[in-house]
Specification:
Elements (H helix, E strand, L loop, with lengths): L4 H11 L6 E3 L6 H15 L12 E4 L7 H9 L21 E3 L5 E3 L17 E6 L10 H17 L4 E4 L28 H10 L15
Parallel strand pairs: 1-4, 2-5, 2-6, 3-5
Antiparallel strand pairs: 3-4
Helix pairs in contact: 1-5, 4-5
């Protein structure tokens, strides 16, 4: 998806002051999901924890590639992963994120902000995820979602010691970094979300936070 950065800049110049609120819309987080999350932390990262909590140092932006809020929510809702052969061998834990942003910019909190969500290989133990409904040719991400992501990045950075802001497509740049804990060298998926232009727009309006991008690498 391509944005005109000039148009985005003009739009955001006059509209980023809009106040936002977070709507709680919880997915299932029962004992089964708690146990699966703790097993994920142990198996994938070597972290033995009594509770499936994270130490947040980064925010990862995504798109769902699903056209509607309800369908996106349903994809994250259950504890066990539905048919996903590309990642099923790693864990039965369903994918999720802490936040889901609808096409109109409404922000939904799907789970507690410091509970681990499965949304980015190698970094879930330290990453808060923001999913955006859409991201396809027919349902591109919107200006309203850009504004909501900017608001959320500011909100989260004020609450937690966030150091990094990345797009999902940048996650493998952390291989070899101290934050990267994935044990399986063969467990990777190719990602392009949420698009470079979307990230540029969000980074431009959050630059005062001085958040770092993914490490520069020549191998990925």
């Amino acid at each position: 998806m391509k944005y005109s950065l000039f148009c985005i800049s003009l739009f955001l110049l006059f509209s980023c002051g809009t106040s936002k609120k977070i709507v709680d819309k919880p997915i299932v987080f029962d004992e089964e999901r708690i146990q699966l999350t703790k097993e994920y932390l142990s198996t994938r990262y070597g972290l033995e924890q009594d509770k499936p909590i994270i130490v947040p140092k980064m925010i990862v932006l995504h798109w769902t590639a699903i056209p509607t809020l309800q369908e996106s929510f349903d994809a994250f809702y259950t504890s066990q992963l539905p048919s996903r052969p590309d990642i099923a061998t790693a864990s039965a834990l369903n994918v999720s994120s802490q936040f889901l942003v609808d096409q109109d910019g409404t922000i939904y909190r799907l789970m507690p902000e410091l509970t681990m969500a499965r949304h980015v290989i190698g970094l879930n133990h330290t990453a808060i995820g923001i999913e955006n409904v859409g991201g396809t040719k027919d349902v591109p991400l919107t200006h309203e979602q850009i504004k909501a992501n900017i608001w959320l990045v500011n909100y989260l950075s004020k609450k937690y010691p966030i150091e990094y802001l990345i797009g999902h497509y940048e996650y493998t740049n952390f291989e070899g970094h101290e934050l990267w804990l994935e044990k399986d060298d063969g467990y990777r998926t190719k990602k392009v979300d949420p698009g470079e232009d979307f990230m540029k727009a969000v980074r431009k309006k959050t630059r005062k936070l001085k958040l770092k991008s993914a490490p520069v690498t020549t191998t990925h």
